[in-house]
Protein backbone atom coordinates (compact mmCIF):
# COMPACT_ATOMS: atom_id res chain seq x y z
CA UNK A 1 0.00 0.00 0.00
CA UNK A 2 1.31 3.44 -0.92
CA UNK A 3 1.55 5.55 2.22
CA UNK A 4 0.74 8.75 0.34
CA UNK A 5 -2.77 7.35 -0.28
CA UNK A 6 -3.45 6.14 3.29
CA UNK A 7 -5.03 7.75 6.33
CA UNK A 8 -2.13 7.43 8.80
CA UNK A 9 -1.99 10.70 10.77
CA UNK A 10 1.07 10.70 13.05
CA UNK A 11 1.83 12.95 16.03
CA UNK A 12 5.17 14.12 17.39
CA UNK A 13 3.95 14.55 20.97
CA UNK A 14 2.03 12.29 23.33
CA UNK A 15 -1.68 13.09 23.77
CA UNK A 16 -2.34 14.83 27.07
CA UNK A 17 -4.69 12.11 28.34
CA UNK A 18 -2.47 9.15 27.35
CA UNK A 19 -0.93 7.74 30.55
CA UNK A 20 0.57 4.48 29.26
CA UNK A 21 2.79 3.54 26.33
CA UNK A 22 0.24 1.56 24.33
CA UNK A 23 -2.20 4.49 24.40
CA UNK A 24 0.53 6.99 23.52
CA UNK A 25 2.06 5.05 20.64
CA UNK A 26 -1.19 3.74 19.12
CA UNK A 27 -2.48 7.31 18.90
CA UNK A 28 0.80 8.88 17.81
CA UNK A 29 1.38 6.25 15.11
CA UNK A 30 -2.10 6.71 13.63
CA UNK A 31 -3.50 3.32 14.64
CA UNK A 32 -6.46 4.66 16.65
CA UNK A 33 -8.39 7.87 17.30
CA UNK A 34 -10.72 8.64 20.19
CA UNK A 35 -14.31 9.53 19.31
CA UNK A 36 -15.60 9.86 22.87
CA UNK A 37 -14.36 8.81 26.30
CA UNK A 38 -13.54 5.10 26.10
CA UNK A 39 -14.64 4.85 22.43
CA UNK A 40 -12.09 4.52 19.62
CA UNK A 41 -11.95 4.22 15.86
CA UNK A 42 -9.35 1.93 14.32
CA UNK A 43 -7.72 3.67 11.39
CA UNK A 44 -6.54 1.57 8.41
CA UNK A 45 -3.17 0.53 9.84
CA UNK A 46 -4.77 -0.24 13.21
CA UNK A 47 -7.48 -2.30 11.55
CA UNK A 48 -4.79 -4.42 9.88
CA UNK A 49 -3.22 -5.34 13.23
CA UNK A 50 -6.64 -6.07 14.70
CA UNK A 51 -7.31 -8.40 11.75
CA UNK A 52 -4.04 -10.25 12.41
CA UNK A 53 -5.09 -10.94 16.00
CA UNK A 54 -8.57 -11.97 14.85
CA UNK A 55 -7.09 -14.41 12.32
CA UNK A 56 -5.01 -16.12 14.99
CA UNK A 57 -8.07 -16.39 17.23
CA UNK A 58 -10.19 -17.83 14.41
CA UNK A 59 -7.56 -20.40 13.48
CA UNK A 60 -7.22 -21.65 17.05
CA UNK A 61 -10.98 -21.75 17.57
CA UNK A 62 -11.53 -23.74 14.40
CA UNK A 63 -8.78 -26.21 15.39
CA UNK A 64 -10.80 -27.26 18.43
CA UNK A 65 -14.09 -27.52 16.54
CA UNK A 66 -15.67 -24.20 17.50
CA UNK A 67 -17.85 -22.67 14.79
CA UNK A 68 -18.23 -18.96 14.14
CA UNK A 69 -21.60 -17.25 14.19
CA UNK A 70 -22.94 -13.73 14.71
CA UNK A 71 -25.40 -12.57 17.34
CA UNK A 72 -27.08 -9.16 17.66
CA UNK A 73 -25.55 -6.44 19.79
CA UNK A 74 -29.07 -5.39 20.86
CA UNK A 75 -30.41 -7.81 23.50
CA UNK A 76 -33.95 -7.76 24.94
CA UNK A 77 -34.13 -7.32 28.71
CA UNK A 78 -36.48 -10.31 29.03
CA UNK A 79 -33.57 -12.69 28.45
CA UNK A 80 -31.41 -11.01 31.10
CA UNK A 81 -34.29 -11.04 33.55
CA UNK A 82 -34.63 -14.82 33.14
CA UNK A 83 -31.18 -15.24 34.69
CA UNK A 84 -31.48 -12.33 37.13
CA UNK A 85 -28.51 -10.53 35.60
CA UNK A 86 -30.61 -7.54 34.56
CA UNK A 87 -30.21 -6.57 38.22
CA UNK A 88 -26.98 -8.25 39.29
CA UNK A 89 -24.78 -7.25 36.37
CA UNK A 90 -24.82 -3.71 37.71
CA UNK A 91 -24.41 -0.24 36.28
CA UNK A 92 -21.87 -1.30 33.61
CA UNK A 93 -24.71 -2.77 31.54
CA UNK A 94 -25.75 -0.20 28.92
CA UNK A 95 -29.55 -0.12 28.83
CA UNK A 96 -31.76 1.57 26.26
CA UNK A 97 -35.47 1.77 25.44
CA UNK A 98 -36.93 1.65 21.94
CA UNK A 99 -39.80 3.88 20.78
CA UNK A 100 -42.28 1.46 22.40
CA UNK A 101 -40.40 1.68 25.70
CA UNK A 102 -39.26 -1.91 25.43
CA UNK A 103 -36.02 -2.39 27.37
CA UNK A 104 -32.82 -3.58 25.71
CA UNK A 105 -29.17 -3.90 26.62
CA UNK A 106 -26.22 -3.26 24.36
CA UNK A 107 -24.38 -6.56 24.42
CA UNK A 108 -21.78 -6.73 27.19
CA UNK A 109 -21.73 -10.51 26.77
CA UNK A 110 -24.04 -13.05 25.14
CA UNK A 111 -24.75 -15.95 27.52
CA UNK A 112 -28.48 -15.24 27.59
CA UNK A 113 -28.80 -14.82 23.82
CA UNK A 114 -26.93 -18.01 22.91
CA UNK A 115 -28.76 -20.02 25.59
CA UNK A 116 -32.11 -18.86 24.19
CA UNK A 117 -31.04 -20.00 20.71
CA UNK A 118 -29.71 -23.38 21.79
CA UNK A 119 -32.67 -24.23 24.02
CA UNK A 120 -34.97 -23.76 21.02
CA UNK A 121 -32.85 -25.63 18.49
CA UNK A 122 -31.06 -28.43 20.37
CA UNK A 123 -33.25 -31.21 21.74
CA UNK A 124 -31.14 -34.38 21.86
CA UNK A 125 -27.86 -35.55 23.37
CA UNK A 126 -26.93 -36.57 19.81
CA UNK A 127 -26.52 -32.85 18.98
CA UNK A 128 -24.06 -32.28 21.84
CA UNK A 129 -21.42 -31.08 22.50
CA UNK A 130 -21.63 -27.77 20.64
CA UNK A 131 -19.15 -24.88 20.77
CA UNK A 132 -19.80 -21.61 18.94
CA UNK A 133 -17.98 -18.29 18.92
CA UNK A 134 -18.22 -14.79 17.52
CA UNK A 135 -15.94 -11.75 17.22
CA UNK A 136 -18.01 -8.68 17.94
CA UNK A 137 -17.98 -5.25 19.56
CA UNK A 138 -19.11 -5.26 23.19
CA UNK A 139 -20.38 -2.39 25.33
CA UNK A 140 -19.86 -1.64 29.01
CA UNK A 141 -20.55 1.64 30.76
CA UNK A 142 -17.21 1.97 32.52
CA UNK A 143 -17.31 4.55 35.29
CA UNK A 144 -13.77 5.67 34.45
CA UNK A 145 -12.54 4.71 30.99
CA UNK A 146 -8.75 4.95 30.92
CA UNK A 147 -5.56 3.55 29.45
CA UNK A 148 -6.80 3.73 25.86
CA UNK A 149 -7.88 0.29 24.64
CA UNK A 150 -7.31 -1.38 28.02
CA UNK A 151 -10.45 0.03 29.66
CA UNK A 152 -13.00 1.24 27.14
CA UNK A 153 -16.75 1.47 26.84
CA UNK A 154 -16.78 -0.21 23.42
CA UNK A 155 -14.27 -2.93 22.58
CA UNK A 156 -13.76 -5.90 20.28
CA UNK A 157 -14.16 -9.29 21.91
CA UNK A 158 -14.15 -12.93 20.93
CA UNK A 159 -16.78 -14.73 22.99
CA UNK A 160 -17.42 -18.46 22.79
CA UNK A 161 -20.00 -20.74 24.41
CA UNK A 162 -20.09 -24.50 24.85
CA UNK A 163 -23.04 -26.78 25.60
CA UNK A 164 -22.32 -30.26 26.96
CA UNK A 165 -24.33 -33.20 28.23
CA UNK A 166 -22.13 -33.81 31.29
CA UNK A 167 -19.55 -32.16 33.50
CA UNK A 168 -16.96 -34.65 32.21
CA UNK A 169 -17.66 -33.44 28.68
CA UNK A 170 -17.43 -29.80 29.86
CA UNK A 171 -14.04 -30.54 31.41
CA UNK A 172 -12.80 -31.77 28.02
CA UNK A 173 -14.12 -28.69 26.20
CA UNK A 174 -12.71 -26.39 28.87
CA UNK A 175 -9.24 -27.92 28.54
CA UNK A 176 -9.36 -27.61 24.75
CA UNK A 177 -10.33 -23.96 25.08
CA UNK A 178 -7.66 -23.38 27.74
CA UNK A 179 -5.01 -24.83 25.42
CA UNK A 180 -6.34 -22.84 22.44
CA UNK A 181 -6.12 -19.61 24.44
CA UNK A 182 -2.57 -20.44 25.45
CA UNK A 183 -1.74 -20.95 21.76
CA UNK A 184 -3.36 -17.62 20.80
CA UNK A 185 -1.31 -15.63 23.26
CA UNK A 186 1.91 -17.49 22.47
CA UNK A 187 1.42 -16.81 18.77
CA UNK A 188 0.89 -13.14 19.63
CA UNK A 189 4.32 -13.21 21.28
CA UNK A 190 3.02 -12.40 24.75
CA UNK A 191 4.56 -13.17 28.13
CA UNK A 192 1.45 -14.28 30.05
CA UNK A 193 0.20 -16.42 32.91
CA UNK A 194 -3.05 -18.38 33.26
CA UNK A 195 -4.32 -17.66 36.77
CA UNK A 196 -7.15 -18.93 38.96
CA UNK A 197 -9.85 -16.27 39.01
CA UNK A 198 -13.29 -15.22 40.25
CA UNK A 199 -16.29 -15.59 37.94
CA UNK A 200 -17.96 -12.38 39.17
CA UNK A 201 -21.23 -11.51 37.42
CA UNK A 202 -20.67 -14.29 34.86
CA UNK A 203 -21.76 -17.01 37.28
CA UNK A 204 -20.30 -20.49 37.55
CA UNK A 205 -17.36 -21.62 39.64
CA UNK A 206 -14.17 -22.84 37.92
CA UNK A 207 -12.49 -20.11 35.92
CA UNK A 208 -9.07 -18.92 34.76
CA UNK A 209 -7.87 -15.52 33.59
CA UNK A 210 -5.08 -15.10 31.08
CA UNK A 211 -2.87 -12.27 32.29
CA UNK A 212 -0.20 -10.46 30.29
CA UNK A 213 2.57 -9.42 32.66
CA UNK A 214 2.90 -5.66 32.70
CA UNK A 215 3.59 -2.94 35.24
CA UNK A 216 0.53 -1.03 34.00
CA UNK A 217 -1.79 -3.96 34.67
CA UNK A 218 -4.73 -3.20 36.93
CA UNK A 219 -4.85 -6.74 38.34
CA UNK A 220 -2.44 -8.24 40.87
CA UNK A 221 -1.27 -11.81 40.32
CA UNK A 222 -0.13 -13.93 43.25
CA UNK A 223 2.37 -16.55 42.09
CA UNK A 224 4.76 -19.06 43.64
CA UNK A 225 8.45 -18.32 43.41
CA UNK A 226 9.24 -22.01 42.80
CA UNK A 227 6.22 -23.57 41.03
CA UNK A 228 3.69 -22.79 38.27
CA UNK A 229 0.97 -21.79 40.74
CA UNK A 230 -0.66 -18.45 39.88
CA UNK A 231 -3.97 -16.86 40.88
CA UNK A 232 -5.68 -13.53 40.84
CA UNK A 233 -5.04 -11.99 44.25
CA UNK A 234 -8.79 -12.07 44.92
CA UNK A 235 -8.89 -15.86 44.56
CA UNK A 236 -5.61 -17.04 46.04
CA UNK A 237 -6.37 -19.09 49.19
CA UNK A 238 -4.25 -18.47 52.25
CA UNK A 239 -2.38 -21.58 53.38
CA UNK A 240 -0.74 -20.01 56.45
CA UNK A 241 -1.07 -21.82 59.77
CA UNK A 242 -1.77 -19.83 62.93
CA UNK A 243 -0.72 -21.09 66.35
CA UNK A 244 -2.36 -19.78 69.49
CA UNK A 245 0.08 -18.46 72.08
CA UNK A 246 0.26 -19.71 75.65
CA UNK A 247 -0.84 -16.27 76.84
CA UNK A 248 -3.73 -16.31 79.32
CA UNK A 249 -6.83 -14.21 78.56
CA UNK A 250 -6.99 -11.02 80.61
CA UNK A 251 -10.04 -9.03 81.63
CA UNK A 252 -11.36 -7.00 78.71
CA UNK A 253 -11.28 -3.23 79.33
CA UNK A 254 -12.81 -0.26 77.53
CA UNK A 255 -10.22 2.40 76.73
CA UNK A 256 -10.70 5.90 75.39
CA UNK A 257 -9.05 6.37 71.98
CA UNK A 258 -9.87 9.97 71.02
CA UNK A 259 -9.75 10.73 67.28
CA UNK A 260 -8.09 7.39 66.51
CA UNK A 261 -9.80 6.09 63.37
CA UNK A 262 -7.32 3.83 61.58
CA UNK A 263 -5.85 0.54 62.73
CA UNK A 264 -2.36 2.07 62.79
CA UNK A 265 -3.53 5.07 64.82
CA UNK A 266 -5.14 2.77 67.41
CA UNK A 267 -2.17 0.38 67.53
CA UNK A 268 0.29 3.25 68.04
CA UNK A 269 -1.89 4.84 70.71
CA UNK A 270 -2.39 1.58 72.62
CA UNK A 271 1.26 0.57 72.19
CA UNK A 272 0.93 -2.74 70.36
CA UNK A 273 1.75 -4.16 66.94
CA UNK A 274 -0.76 -3.87 64.13
CA UNK A 275 -1.19 -7.67 64.07
CA UNK A 276 -2.46 -7.59 67.67
CA UNK A 277 -5.57 -5.61 66.79
CA UNK A 278 -8.85 -6.65 65.17
CA UNK A 279 -10.16 -4.96 62.03
CA UNK A 280 -13.97 -5.07 61.74
CA UNK A 281 -15.84 -4.07 58.59
CA UNK A 282 -19.59 -4.08 58.02
CA UNK A 283 -20.95 -5.50 54.77
CA UNK A 284 -24.37 -6.03 53.31
CA UNK A 285 -24.34 -9.52 51.78
CA UNK A 286 -27.52 -9.70 49.71
CA UNK A 287 -30.09 -8.98 52.44
CA UNK A 288 -27.87 -10.00 55.39
CA UNK A 289 -25.68 -7.66 57.43
CA UNK A 290 -22.29 -9.23 58.12
CA UNK A 291 -19.34 -8.04 60.19
CA UNK A 292 -16.11 -9.43 58.74
CA UNK A 293 -13.19 -9.48 61.18
CA UNK A 294 -9.52 -9.86 60.31
CA UNK A 295 -6.24 -9.29 62.05
CA UNK A 296 -5.15 -5.65 61.98
CA UNK A 297 -2.36 -6.25 59.46
CA UNK A 298 -4.67 -8.12 57.06
CA UNK A 299 -7.29 -6.92 54.56
CA UNK A 300 -10.80 -8.33 54.12
CA UNK A 301 -11.27 -9.99 50.72
CA UNK A 302 -14.87 -9.24 49.68
CA UNK A 303 -14.73 -11.88 46.90
CA UNK A 304 -14.02 -14.59 49.47
CA UNK A 305 -16.85 -13.20 51.60
CA UNK A 306 -19.18 -13.35 48.61
CA UNK A 307 -18.18 -16.95 47.87
CA UNK A 308 -18.56 -17.92 51.52
CA UNK A 309 -22.21 -16.84 51.42
CA UNK A 310 -22.76 -17.83 47.79
CA UNK A 311 -24.12 -14.30 47.42
CA UNK A 312 -25.08 -12.28 44.39
CA UNK A 313 -24.12 -8.87 45.80
CA UNK A 314 -21.59 -7.90 48.48
CA UNK A 315 -21.08 -4.23 49.28
CA UNK A 316 -19.99 -2.12 52.22
CA UNK A 317 -22.87 -1.33 54.55
CA UNK A 318 -23.88 2.32 54.54
CA UNK A 319 -22.79 4.45 57.47
CA UNK A 320 -26.47 5.08 58.18
CA UNK A 321 -27.18 1.33 58.54
CA UNK A 322 -23.99 0.84 60.55
CA UNK A 323 -24.95 3.52 63.06
CA UNK A 324 -28.51 2.21 63.26
CA UNK A 325 -27.36 -1.32 64.05
CA UNK A 326 -24.25 -0.68 66.14
CA UNK A 327 -24.60 2.90 67.36
CA UNK A 328 -21.32 4.11 65.89
CA UNK A 329 -19.55 4.88 62.64
CA UNK A 330 -16.86 2.98 60.82
CA UNK A 331 -13.85 3.99 62.95
CA UNK A 332 -14.93 2.27 66.19
CA UNK A 333 -16.50 -1.01 65.04
CA UNK A 334 -15.87 -4.27 66.85
CA UNK A 335 -17.35 -7.77 67.31
CA UNK A 336 -18.28 -7.41 71.02
CA UNK A 337 -22.03 -7.26 71.86
CA UNK A 338 -23.14 -7.24 68.25
CA UNK A 339 -26.94 -7.40 67.73
CA UNK A 340 -28.47 -10.66 66.48
CA UNK A 341 -29.28 -9.31 63.03
CA UNK A 342 -25.54 -8.86 62.36
CA UNK A 343 -23.61 -12.09 61.70
CA UNK A 344 -19.96 -12.05 62.74
CA UNK A 345 -17.50 -14.01 60.58
CA UNK A 346 -13.75 -13.96 61.06
CA UNK A 347 -10.58 -14.93 59.30
CA UNK A 348 -8.71 -17.97 60.61
CA UNK A 349 -5.92 -15.71 61.94
CA UNK A 350 -8.37 -14.13 64.39
CA UNK A 351 -9.01 -17.45 66.16
CA UNK A 352 -5.35 -17.62 67.22
CA UNK A 353 -5.38 -14.19 68.92
CA UNK A 354 -5.52 -13.58 72.65
CA UNK A 355 -5.90 -10.18 74.33
CA UNK A 356 -6.40 -8.21 71.14
CA UNK A 357 -7.74 -4.69 70.77
CA UNK A 358 -10.95 -3.98 68.86
CA UNK A 359 -13.54 -1.25 68.41
CA UNK A 360 -16.03 -0.85 71.27
CA UNK A 361 -18.96 0.20 69.03
CA UNK A 362 -18.81 3.56 70.75
CA UNK A 363 -17.29 6.65 69.17
CA UNK A 364 -13.76 7.25 70.49
CA UNK A 365 -13.45 3.97 72.43
CA UNK A 366 -11.76 0.61 71.91
CA UNK A 367 -11.52 -2.56 73.96
CA UNK A 368 -8.21 -4.05 74.99
CA UNK A 369 -7.69 -7.70 75.99
CA UNK A 370 -10.53 -8.97 73.78
CA UNK A 371 -10.28 -12.72 73.17
CA UNK A 372 -12.46 -14.64 70.70
CA UNK A 373 -14.64 -17.23 72.37
CA UNK A 374 -14.28 -15.42 75.70
CA UNK A 375 -15.37 -11.84 75.03
CA UNK A 376 -17.15 -12.22 71.70
CA UNK A 377 -18.56 -15.01 69.57
CA UNK A 378 -17.88 -15.73 65.92
CA UNK A 379 -20.54 -17.37 63.76
CA UNK A 380 -17.87 -19.07 61.62
CA UNK A 381 -14.18 -18.86 60.80
CA UNK A 382 -13.05 -18.92 57.17
CA UNK A 383 -10.30 -17.80 54.84
CA UNK A 384 -11.41 -14.18 54.48
CA UNK A 385 -8.25 -12.21 53.83
CA UNK A 386 -6.15 -11.26 50.86
CA UNK A 387 -2.99 -13.31 50.46
CA UNK A 388 0.23 -11.38 51.07
CA UNK A 389 3.72 -11.55 49.62
CA UNK A 390 5.78 -13.99 51.68
CA UNK A 391 2.80 -16.21 52.56
CA UNK A 392 3.25 -19.92 51.77
CA UNK A 393 2.12 -20.81 48.24
CA UNK A 394 -1.26 -22.60 48.31
CA UNK A 395 0.23 -25.54 46.36
CA UNK A 396 2.80 -26.11 49.10
CA UNK A 397 5.74 -25.09 46.93
CA UNK A 398 7.64 -21.90 47.69
CA UNK A 399 6.28 -18.55 48.83
CA UNK A 400 4.01 -16.00 47.22
CA UNK A 401 5.24 -13.10 45.16
CA UNK A 402 3.16 -10.45 43.37
CA UNK A 403 3.18 -9.20 39.77
CA UNK A 404 0.81 -6.94 37.86
CA UNK A 405 -1.10 -8.18 34.84
CA UNK A 406 -3.44 -7.12 32.05
CA UNK A 407 -6.38 -9.50 31.64
CA UNK A 408 -6.69 -10.49 27.98
CA UNK A 409 -8.73 -13.69 28.24
CA UNK A 410 -11.11 -15.48 30.60
CA UNK A 411 -12.52 -19.03 30.56
CA UNK A 412 -15.47 -20.09 32.72
CA UNK A 413 -17.12 -23.37 33.66
CA UNK A 414 -20.65 -22.04 33.94
CA UNK A 415 -22.25 -25.39 34.71
CA UNK A 416 -26.04 -25.01 34.95
CA UNK A 417 -26.07 -21.34 36.01
CA UNK A 418 -27.77 -20.15 32.80
CA UNK A 419 -29.28 -23.31 31.38
CA UNK A 420 -31.22 -24.08 34.57
CA UNK A 421 -32.61 -20.56 34.85
CA UNK A 422 -33.52 -20.48 31.16
CA UNK A 423 -34.78 -24.07 30.95
CA UNK A 424 -32.23 -25.21 28.35
CA UNK A 425 -32.68 -28.99 28.41
CA UNK A 426 -32.10 -31.99 26.17
CA UNK A 427 -33.20 -35.62 26.10
CA UNK A 428 -30.47 -38.03 27.14
CA UNK A 429 -29.94 -41.54 25.73
CA UNK A 430 -32.71 -42.82 28.01
CA UNK A 431 -35.21 -40.21 26.87
CA UNK A 432 -35.03 -38.21 30.10
CA UNK A 433 -34.81 -34.41 30.16
CA UNK A 434 -31.48 -33.12 31.44
CA UNK A 435 -30.14 -29.61 31.90
CA UNK A 436 -27.34 -28.61 29.53
CA UNK A 437 -23.91 -27.97 31.04
CA UNK A 438 -22.32 -24.75 29.79
CA UNK A 439 -18.99 -23.01 29.43
CA UNK A 440 -18.19 -19.43 28.43
CA UNK A 441 -14.90 -18.17 27.03
CA UNK A 442 -13.75 -14.65 26.12
CA UNK A 443 -10.73 -12.94 24.58
CA UNK A 444 -10.43 -9.16 24.51
CA UNK A 445 -9.16 -8.76 20.96
CA UNK A 446 -8.61 -4.99 21.03
CA UNK A 447 -7.25 -5.26 24.58
CA UNK A 448 -4.79 -7.92 23.40
CA UNK A 449 -3.52 -5.50 20.76
CA UNK A 450 -2.81 -2.90 23.45
CA UNK A 451 -1.19 -5.50 25.71
CA UNK A 452 1.18 -6.47 22.89
CA UNK A 453 2.30 -2.84 22.57
CA UNK A 454 2.90 -2.68 26.33
CA UNK A 455 5.39 -5.53 25.97
CA UNK A 456 6.77 -4.52 22.55
CA UNK A 457 7.97 -0.94 22.38
CA UNK A 458 11.02 1.23 22.91
CA UNK A 459 11.51 4.97 23.34
CA UNK A 460 10.90 5.59 19.62
CA UNK A 461 7.70 3.62 19.10
CA UNK A 462 6.20 0.15 18.69
CA UNK A 463 8.24 -2.99 17.91
CA UNK A 464 5.55 -5.40 16.69
CA UNK A 465 6.12 -9.18 16.79
CA UNK A 466 6.42 -10.45 13.22
CA UNK A 467 3.06 -12.28 13.17
CA UNK A 468 1.08 -9.27 14.42
CA UNK A 469 2.67 -6.39 12.52
CA UNK A 470 0.41 -4.52 10.07
CA UNK A 471 2.94 -5.07 7.28
CA UNK A 472 6.03 -7.23 6.90
CA UNK A 473 8.11 -4.52 5.27
CA UNK A 474 8.21 -0.74 5.42
CA UNK A 475 9.75 0.46 2.15
CA UNK A 476 11.11 4.02 2.23
CA UNK A 477 12.06 6.09 -0.79
CA UNK A 478 14.33 8.76 0.60
CA UNK A 479 14.04 11.19 -2.29
CA UNK A 480 11.25 10.41 -4.78
CA UNK A 481 12.34 13.42 -6.82
CA UNK A 482 15.49 11.55 -7.86
CA UNK A 483 14.61 9.27 -10.73
CA UNK A 484 16.99 6.42 -9.81
CA UNK A 485 15.61 6.23 -6.25
CA UNK A 486 11.98 6.48 -7.35
CA UNK A 487 12.44 3.87 -10.08
CA UNK A 488 14.18 1.35 -7.80
CA UNK A 489 11.67 1.88 -4.98
CA UNK A 490 8.74 1.42 -7.38
CA UNK A 491 10.31 -1.76 -8.81
CA UNK A 492 10.95 -3.17 -5.32
CA UNK A 493 7.39 -2.39 -4.28
CA UNK A 494 5.97 -4.38 -7.20
CA UNK A 495 8.49 -7.20 -6.75
CA UNK A 496 7.67 -7.63 -3.06
CA UNK A 497 3.92 -7.52 -3.69
CA UNK A 498 4.21 -10.15 -6.43
CA UNK A 499 6.10 -12.36 -3.95
CA UNK A 500 3.17 -12.13 -1.54
CA UNK A 501 5.00 -9.90 0.94
CA UNK A 502 2.96 -7.24 2.74
CA UNK A 503 4.47 -3.82 2.07
CA UNK A 504 3.79 -0.30 3.24
CA UNK A 505 5.53 1.98 0.73
CA UNK A 506 6.44 5.44 2.00
CA UNK A 507 6.42 7.32 -1.30
CA UNK A 508 5.59 10.67 0.32
CA UNK A 509 7.48 13.83 -0.51
CA UNK A 510 8.70 14.30 3.05
CA UNK A 511 12.07 14.86 4.69
CA UNK A 512 14.14 11.78 5.54
CA UNK A 513 13.90 12.57 9.28
CA UNK A 514 10.10 12.57 9.15
CA UNK A 515 10.03 9.24 7.32
CA UNK A 516 12.46 7.57 9.74
CA UNK A 517 10.56 8.88 12.79
CA UNK A 518 7.23 7.65 11.41
CA UNK A 519 8.74 4.29 10.55
CA UNK A 520 10.00 3.87 14.11
CA UNK A 521 6.55 4.79 15.43
CA UNK A 522 4.79 2.25 13.18
CA UNK A 523 7.03 -0.58 14.40
CA UNK A 524 6.99 -2.67 11.18
CA UNK A 525 9.65 -5.39 11.70
CA UNK A 526 11.77 -4.75 8.57
CA UNK A 527 12.58 -1.39 7.01
CA UNK A 528 14.03 -1.19 3.51
CA UNK A 529 15.51 2.19 2.62
CA UNK A 530 16.18 3.21 -0.96
CA UNK A 531 18.69 6.04 -0.86
CA UNK A 532 21.97 7.27 -2.28
CA UNK A 533 23.14 3.84 -3.49
CA UNK A 534 20.07 3.25 -5.63
CA UNK A 535 22.12 3.61 -8.81
CA UNK A 536 24.27 0.68 -7.61
CA UNK A 537 21.17 -1.42 -6.92
CA UNK A 538 21.91 -1.42 -3.17
CA UNK A 539 19.42 -0.80 -0.36
CA UNK A 540 19.65 -0.65 3.43
CA UNK A 541 17.61 -3.15 5.48
CA UNK A 542 17.07 -2.51 9.19
CA UNK A 543 15.62 -4.77 11.90
CA UNK A 544 13.24 -2.50 13.85
CA UNK A 545 13.55 -4.40 17.14
CA UNK A 546 17.33 -4.90 17.28
CA UNK A 547 18.49 -1.95 15.18
CA UNK A 548 20.76 -4.21 13.11
CA UNK A 549 21.39 -2.88 9.57
CA UNK A 550 22.55 -4.61 6.39
CA UNK A 551 23.33 -3.46 2.86
CA UNK A 552 21.51 -5.78 0.47
CA UNK A 553 21.49 -6.05 -3.30
CA UNK A 554 18.03 -5.15 -4.53
CA UNK A 555 17.98 -8.18 -6.82
CA UNK A 556 18.01 -10.48 -3.76
CA UNK A 557 15.61 -8.55 -1.57
CA UNK A 558 12.71 -11.02 -1.81
CA UNK A 559 14.90 -13.92 -0.77
CA UNK A 560 16.36 -11.82 2.08
CA UNK A 561 12.93 -10.92 3.45
CA UNK A 562 11.60 -14.47 3.20
CA UNK A 563 14.69 -15.88 4.94
CA UNK A 564 14.39 -13.28 7.70
CA UNK A 565 10.76 -14.20 8.38
CA UNK A 566 11.38 -17.95 8.50
CA UNK A 567 10.78 -19.15 12.00
CA UNK A 568 9.37 -15.83 13.20
TrEMBL record:
CDD domains in the cross-refs: ProRS-INS, ProRS_anticodon_short, ProRS_core_prok
Presence of keyword Transmembrane helix: no
Gene3D superfamilies: Anticodon-binding domain, Bira Bifunctional Protein, Domain 2
PROSITE patterns found in the cross-reference section: AA_TRNA_LIGASE_II
TM spans (from-to): none
Keywords: Aminoacyl-tRNA synthetase, ATP-binding, Cytoplasm, Ligase, Nucleotide-binding, Protein biosynthesis
Enzyme Commission number(s) of this protein: 6.1.1.15
Domain Aminoacyl-transfer RNA synthetases class-II family profile: 33-465
Annotated GO CC locations: cytosol
UniProt keyword Acetylation present: no
Example GO BP: prolyl-tRNA aminoacylation
Molecular function GO terms recorded: aminoacyl-tRNA deacylase activity; ATP binding; catalytic activity, acting on a protein; proline-tRNA ligase activity; transferase activity
Catalyzed reactions per annotation: tRNA(Pro) + L-proline + ATP = L-prolyl-tRNA(Pro) + AMP + diphosphate
Listed NCBIfam families: PRK09194.1, proS_fam_II
Assembly information from the UniProt record: Homodimer.
PANTHER family: MITOCHONDRIAL RIBOSOME PROTEIN L39/PROLYL-TRNA LIGASE FAMILY MEMBER (PTHR42753), PROLINE--TRNA LIGASE (PTHR42753:SF2)
Domain notes: Consists of three domains: the N-terminal catalytic domain, the editing domain and the C-terminal anticodon-binding domain.
Function: Catalyzes the attachment of proline to tRNA(Pro) in a two-step reaction: proline is first activated by ATP to form Pro-AMP and then transferred to the acceptor end of tRNA(Pro). As ProRS can inadvertently accommodate and process non-cognate amino acids such as alanine and cysteine, to avoid such errors it has two additional distinct editing activities against alanine. One activity is designated as 'pretransfer' editing and involves the tRNA(Pro)-independent hydrolysis of activated Ala-AMP.
Membership in a protein family: Belongs to the class-II aminoacyl-tRNA synthetase family. ProS type 1 subfamily.
Protein name: Proline--tRNA ligase
Species per Swiss-Prot/TrEMBL record: Halobacillus litoralis
Chain's gene name: proS
